[in-house]
Amino acid sequence: MTTLEQRPVARAPLAAHQRGAAGRVAAAVSTPGGAIFVLAGLLLVATIVANPNFGDPGVIIRFLGRTAPIAIAAIGQYYVIVAGEFDLSMAAVISMQVVLAGNLIGDDVGRVLPVMALMLVLGAFIGLVNGLVTTLLQVPSFIVTLGMMLALSGLVAYLTGGAADGNPVDEFREIGRGGIQDVPVVDVIPYSLLIFLAIAVAASWLMRRPFGRSLIAAGDNPAAARFAGGSLVWLKTRAFILSSLSATVAGVLLVGYAGVHPSVGQGYEFSAITAVVLGGVLLGGGRGWVLSAAAGAFALELLFLFLTAVGVESTWRDTVQGLIIIAAVAIAGRAWTAGRRPRRAGTTPSTSRDEQPLPTPGTTTGDS
């Protein structure tokens, strides 16, 4: 009997990458998440042209430090929105934490670390409540966080009587308003900017981990994520916890700039949502980059600076912010939908959200 010689089957070589570094950059910029970095650069140039004093490196670095709290809040809001939910309690969490710091720290330096630990624990607890009520009781997150916002706002009003309370010690306020001094060119690097950079790096790493990929999948197709064996309850609850912790950190930084007053942080929930959608994150979940959400915060503040520089009254701020939300949601939704359309002939796009496939990690979702 003759034994046939087994020969290895020749395989077709893998196709070479069709685009170089420039092509990949162009492709990223063409997405809603990438375009925000171009927009931020254009707004920076326009603001410098309208107000040449803003071109000083020291002025720019201080602007970045002042904007860091809203960028941190935007990162926290991103976790919730990309999972298909909302967190309207951020501003109330910030106000509560600010008042808490003023009342408990006072002039005692020894209380700074214990009170900060208490603030983080309390922030995590608020996020835990928001997440569990949303997921276990199936109450829409819009209603849950709206109720939490009203409850916390009422508590702050009761504790303060609607008036400013005493400021904590300068050592605590230095976290938000201090920085590394005598730095060449920029003179100072704000601590708030360094804290933001640390949080941004951690967020970028987290969104590349299984948690981040599962969070995006849950926002894109909850039914498929549930069938895949993931616990949506704990997954989305962690997103709410991260959102409240981000608001807590923003509150700590804002004490340095604004002191202790129940109005500190007012409107931050809408500013954070505006920054997230401006960064190309799709409301309803499943699409968007976390760093683009942070970039949206800087672009938003640059836009307001530019409008002020050209003589537009600050009373138009809310109007502009509302128009940005409407326009950004419409543009991002159409852009991401266009990116999902099948490219092969003979295939038809899905008509139902639940029929759409899960996103491929590292392509058009998650972090850049």
From TrEMBL:
<feature type="transmembrane region" description="Helical">
    <location>
        <begin position="188"/>
        <end position="207"/>
    </location>
</feature>
<keyword id="KW-0472">Membrane</keyword>
<keyword id="KW-0812">Transmembrane</keyword>
<feature type="transmembrane region" description="Helical">
    <location>
        <begin position="60"/>
        <end position="81"/>
    </location>
</feature>
<keyword id="KW-0813">Transport</keyword>
<feature type="transmembrane region" description="Helical">
    <location>
        <begin position="112"/>
        <end position="132"/>
    </location>
</feature>
<feature type="transmembrane region" description="Helical">
    <location>
        <begin position="318"/>
        <end position="336"/>
    </location>
</feature>
<feature type="compositionally biased region" description="Low complexity">
    <location>
        <begin position="340"/>
        <end position="351"/>
    </location>
</feature>
<keyword id="KW-1133">Transmembrane helix</keyword>
<feature type="region of interest" description="Disordered">
    <location>
        <begin position="340"/>
        <end position="368"/>
    </location>
</feature>
<protein>
    <recommendedName>
        <fullName>Autoinducer 2 import system permease protein LsrD</fullName>
    </recommendedName>
</protein>
<dbReference type="Pfam" id="PF02653">
    <property type="entry name" value="BPD_transp_2"/>
</dbReference>
<feature type="transmembrane region" description="Helical">
    <location>
        <begin position="266"/>
        <end position="283"/>
    </location>
</feature>
<feature type="transmembrane region" description="Helical">
    <location>
        <begin position="21"/>
        <end position="48"/>
    </location>
</feature>
<feature type="transmembrane region" description="Helical">
    <location>
        <begin position="139"/>
        <end position="159"/>
    </location>
</feature>
<dbReference type="InterPro" id="IPR001851">
    <property type="entry name" value="ABC_transp_permease"/>
</dbReference>
<feature type="transmembrane region" description="Helical">
    <location>
        <begin position="290"/>
        <end position="312"/>
    </location>
</feature>
<keyword id="KW-1003">Cell membrane</keyword>
<feature type="transmembrane region" description="Helical">
    <location>
        <begin position="88"/>
        <end position="106"/>
    </location>
</feature>
<feature type="transmembrane region" description="Helical">
    <location>
        <begin position="239"/>
        <end position="260"/>
    </location>
</feature>
<keyword id="KW-0997">Cell inner membrane</keyword>
